[in-house]
Each structure stands twice: as structure tokens, then as C-alpha cells.
UniProtKB/TrEMBL annotation:
Keywords: FAD, Flavoprotein, Monooxygenase, Oxidoreductase. InterPro entries: FAD-bd, FAD-dep_Monooxygenase_BioMet, FAD/NAD-bd_sf. It holds the Pfam family FAD_binding_3. Belongs to the paxM FAD-dependent monooxygenase family. Residues 1-24 are annotated as: Disordered. This is FAD-binding domain-containing protein. One of its GO terms (molecular function) is monooxygenase activity.
């Protein structure tokens, strides 16, 4: 196969095949998945000087499976690509997770569905019933009912108001489709939130009929490991988060940052498996905390520096080995 990707020094390195363990050359890193976790991992590792290939974009083929023993990806078009490290950023329905674990597992419904949609802030401001929701730029609001919950916050430089309206699965009419892009019914949305205040109902009336989406939330049991050999899971492939405080996307980005700290330029390919075990340890240390009240929880999440935490984990490991 002749597919290539440029290395950081301007030369071309073959996408197929391992490199040597020379400390002077960048690692060849293959990324499965092009969501926020995969893209952040690519940015993090490219800035460190490693050579990256987001496989499905580079080779225009979906991934069929992974070879954990040889650090390779099997593509649906029949091609096989090899590298020093495979980063599985292919989401909650990961095709790589089972190979890393050595057994079959899959996400399960959490019991809640979420309607998702955007409303132009200009429309909200123009209506006296709803203008108070956008008086302060950048403000998030949460409204609770007996069974439903509504979260709204501005995005796109305060030009759109993003809505997440959560209700039990049995009320939503959600089918077994667990994709995030399933069409939702505005009529069902309005019916389920009919008991809310008039200003909330006026807001929901503005939801565009043809863009309301219904997302069946999924959960997953905690995994005993996030890596096998030089294949590693990140983001929802490793730890499925429910959409609270944006932690699904945030944790995926933190994973990419952590790998950046643990795999600096000069890392040998032979060192990768042990570094990935440190990545798992650093991630578990972060989330294994005593239950906090909501304000403490928010402060803890927003202040956490995943890069520095992982770097400190690596420093401690090196110092222990030298002692």
C-alpha cells in the first residue's frame, strides 16, 4: 500500500509498518474515530512532534477491527495498517473495545432520553415572554419538573440557545435506535413539558419542527482496563458519560491531553504499553473521589488539569524506578 502521511520534519513516513525504537524519531500513531476525542488526541500528539494518521479520514475506509498483538487496524476495504500506537476514539459503540478487553460488552440504556435542538437567541430576545432567559450572555439555566428536566445555554458566540430536554424513555417514544441523530417529535416534546411554566412552554414552541433530535442516553459498566499492548481506548470508548456538565466531551479532551503528557517526543515504542497503564491509573485517580455537593463537584471538574496530573503520574513513576 502506498498511502503516506507527512511526518513533522517534512519527510514522508509510510502509514503501513512499524518504526524502530529510535528515541530520535516520532511515533506513528493511528487514530480510529474522528470525534472530539480523536481530533484532540491528534492535535495533542502532533504538537508533541509525533506523526499522526486519522485512519478513516486518511484512507477513506471504515475500520472493521484491530490487531492488538501487532498494533494494527483492519479496514473494511481489506487494507491493513500498522503503527506504534492505536488510539480508539470511536465512541460508545466502539468496534475496538471488545478486542482490548478480550470479551464482548456493549452499552445499555440509562432509562432517559434527551430532545436536542437550537433556537436563535434573536428570536428569544424578541419575545417578551422569553427575553429574560438571555438577559445575561453566557448564562446556563436548568429547570426541573417531576419527571422532566430542561437545560439551556448559549453557544455559537451567543447567537444560538442550545436545549437539552430530558425525560424518561417510556415517555419519549424513543425507539431502540441508540444513535444520536434520531429525529424527534416537537409535538411529543410540547406534550411532555405541558406542565411547566408559561415562559418555558413559550420557549419550547420556538423549537424548529424539522431539527428536533431525540437521543436515547446510554451507560456502560466501568472497564477493568483501557488498553491492551499498544492499543488504547479514549473518550466514550473507554468511559461512557451521561451529558452532565459536558463531561462526555470534556473527558475525551482530557484523555487526549493525558496521552500527550505521557507520550512526549522521544518515547520508545517499547515503552508505550507501560505508559498506557499509567494513563489508566491517572484517569481512575481523577474520578475515584468521595461524593461531593454539586458546587464542589463542578469546581473539581472545571479545575482539573489532566495534562499536569498525567505528567505528575509519569514523574512519580520515573522517580520511583530510580529510587
Amino acid at each position: 500500500m502506498n498511502s503516506t502521511t507527512p511526518s513533522t520534519n517534512g519527510s514522508e513516513s509510510q502509514l503501513n509498518g512499524h518504526h524502530s525504537s529510535s528515541p530520535s524519531r516520532p511515533l506513528k500513531i493511528l487514530i480510529a474515530g474522528a470525534g472530539i476525542g480523536g481530533l484532540f488526541a491528534a492535535i495533542s500528539r502532533t504538537s508533541a512532534g509525533h506523526s499522526m494518521a486519522t485512519v478513516e479520514i486518511t484512507l477513506q475506509s471504515r475500520i472493521k477491527g484491530v490487531d492488538c498483538d501487532r498494533t494494527g487496524l483492519i479496514l473494511e476495504n481489506g487494507e491493513y495498517v500498522q503503527g506504534d500506537l492505536v488510539i480508539s476514539a470511536d465512541g460508545v459503540h466502539s468496534v475496538i473495545r471488545n478486542s482490548v478487553l478480550g470479551y464482548k460488552t456493549s452499552p445499555k440504556p440509562f432509562g432517559t432520553s434527551a430532545f436536542r435542538f437550537l433556537i436563535p437567541i434573536s428570536e428569544v430576545k424578541a419575545d417578551p415572554k422569553t427575553a429574560h432567559f438571555v438577559e445575561k450572555p453566557g448564562e446556563l439555566a436548568m429547570v426541573y419538573g417531576e419527571e422532566g428536566r430542561l437545560v439551556l445555554y448559549p453557544c455559537r458566540n451567543n447567537t444560538e440557545l442550545n436545549f437539552v430536554a430530558m425525560i424518561p424513555d417510556y415517555e419519549s417514544g424513543a425507539e431502540n435506535n441508540t444513535g444520536w441523530n434520531q429525529a424527534g417529535s416537537k409535538a411529543v416534546l410540547l406534550r411532555l413539558f405541558d406542565g411547566f411554566s408559561d415562559d418555558i412552554k413559550a420557549l419550547l414552541e420556538k423549537a424548529p419542527e424539522d431539527t428536533v433530535k431525540l437521543w436515547k442516553l446510554l451507560d456502560h459498566d466501568a472497564l477493568p482496563t483501557w488498553s491492551r499492548g499498544s492499543v488504547v481506548l479514549i473518550g466514550d470508548a473507554a468511559h461512557q458519560f451521561l451529558p452532565h456538565q459536558g463531561q462526555g466531551g470534556a473527558q475525551a479532551m482530557e484523555d487526549g491531553a493525558a496521552l500527550g503528557a505521557l507520550l512526549p517526543l522521544g518515547t520508545l515504542s517499547s515503552e508505550i504499553p507501560s505508559r498506557l497503564k499509567l494513563y489508566f491509573r491517572a484517569g481512575i485517580e481523577h474520578v475515584k473521589r468521595e461524593i461531593m455537593d454539586p458546587l464542589q463537584f463542578t469546581d473539581y471538574n472545571f479545575r482539573h488539569d489532566a495534562f499536569e496530573h498525567a505528567a505528575e503520574t509519569l514523574r512519580n513513576e520515573v522517580n520511583t524506578a530510580r529510587a
